[in-house]
Design goal:
Helix content: under 10%
Oligomer: single chain
Strand order of the largest sheet: 1-2-3-4
Structural class: mainly beta
Strand content: 35-45%
Number of helices: 0
Length: about 110
């Protein structure tokens, strides 16, 4: 697939404590147009892509700049508005609860 089709789809990659690549992903497939930038991960070889958080939650609208907290199942990310700058509140996320679990991100 041509590079120009993908360049605005995945943002702010980082490597987590387990060697997975974390990234924010625009996902507008079968969506109503908002809350479509969740947190995803993949293995370094590109296999095993999966949503970690925010793929079907209503808040936050966008998840950016995720970083793992060494030695734990938690991540920290920036919660932001849709089509906004990558700035906002810092959110602590516990991935042990699974994708979009309300208890994964208290408050």
């Amino acid at each position: 697939m041509a590079d120009f089709l993908l360049r605005d789809v995945e943002w702010t990659p980082s490597v987590d404590d387990q060697g997975r690549i974390l990234y924010s992903r625009w996902d507008y497939v079968d969506r109503y147009g908002q809350n479509a930038m969740g947190l995803w991960s993949t293995l370094p070889d590109g296999t095993g892509a999966r949503a970690l958080f925010g793929n079907y939650s209503r808040n936050p609208e966008c998840v950016f700049e995720a970083r793992s907290i060494p030695g734990s199942s938690r991540l920290v990310f920036t919660a932001s508005g849709h089509h906004s700058i990558t700035a906002g509140s810092l959110v602590l996320l516990d991935c042990k609860f699974g994708p979009d679990a309300p208890q994964a991100s208290p408050g």
